[in-house]
Amino acid sequence: MRTTRYLKRLTNLTPLLLAGALVLAFGVAAHARQTAGRESKPATDAASLLAVLKATGSDLNPKEARALDDAVEGLKRMGRAAVPALTEFLNTEKGPGRVHAATALAGIDPSDALARRTLEDLARKGKGDDVIMAALALAEIDPENDAAVPALVKMASKSIWLPSRKALVRQRTSAQALALTAPGIKALTPLLNHWDSWVRQAAVFAFDERTETLARASHAVRAATREAIPALVKAIADKDEIVSGMAAESLEQLGADALPELKRAAASDDKRLSAAASELLKQMGRG
């Protein structure tokens, strides 16, 4: 795969990607741990776990992020026993811990009205990382939910004139959150043609991660990803080598679904696009 090759060209973004992974850990990775062994650890007092959530702030270091993640997972493992405390927390607390409490409550009962209402409210009216965390939690329980899409698009498409770790992490993770739902993928697709190369890179990396795990996605998510194939094919002719390379990798992962559009591109009058499509078809053994 080309991923290693292109990530090597992003050495200045390595801390960014690692930090982004910490943000996403509360959503995608946490689900795997929950599935692997919800009852594998003894229950912990809900009050002590909620105290961790209440004390949470922004710009967490790795140790703090792990502690917060462990607290959310601990509440999920407690199951129904944690529901009264979580409900009270959400009804009384106004701080940043709300999104994590709602995530835990949704993990225990995806149909819980308070958890869903809190997450949707934060997705629509929250700021920064709260929106991303709410989007991740909503994607877990409802891959058709579009509450966070407008805010995520705004963050993913925001032009960055003076790159900073925080700004680039937020842009990249916003795009990744969009790629988790069908409405999000449809909103992410136009960003592949954005004038700002940072935005295009964020979008194409999100598509690469999505296509790597597409077999486990919902039918709607798979359909939305296939609808993005023409935009991904166009992106293989992008002058930004990272964008073109990652778009090609996404198309390789899509396999046979991408072939008709690639063949049309190979016959295009656009010489740059035609050459890129022809080369990719050869690499896929379909030239």
Describe the structure.
The protein is an all-alpha fold and 287 residues long. The chain contains 17 helices and no strands. It is elongated, with a radius of gyration of 20 Å. It starts with a helix and ends with a helix.
Descriptive keywords:
single chain; 287 residues; mainly alpha; elongated; disordered N terminus
Short characterization:
With about 290 residues, this protein is mostly helical. It contains 17 helices and no strands.
Strand proportion = under 5%
Got a strand count? 0
What is the average per-residue confidence, as pLDDT, rounded to a whole number? 86
Specify the overall morphology. Answer: elongated
Taking the alpha carbons of the first and last residues, their distance comes to 19 Å
Which value, in Å, is the CA radius of gyration?
20 Å
Low-confidence spans: 1-43
Helix content: 55-70%
Question: Helix tally?
Answer: 17
SSE series: HHHHHHHHHHHHHHHHH
Major β-sheet annotation: none
Class derived from helix and strand content? mainly alpha
Topology at a glance:
Layout lengths: L2 H6 L5 H24 L8 H9 L7 H17 L4 H10 L4 H12 L4 H13 L3 H13 L7 H8 L8 H14 L3 H7 L8 H16 L6 H9 L1 H7 L5 H14 L4 H8 L4 H13 L4
Helix pairs in contact: 2-4, 2-8, 2-10, 3-4, 3-6, 4-6, 5-6, 6-7, 6-8, 7-8, 8-10, 9-10, 9-11, 10-12, 11-13, 12-15, 14-15, 16-17
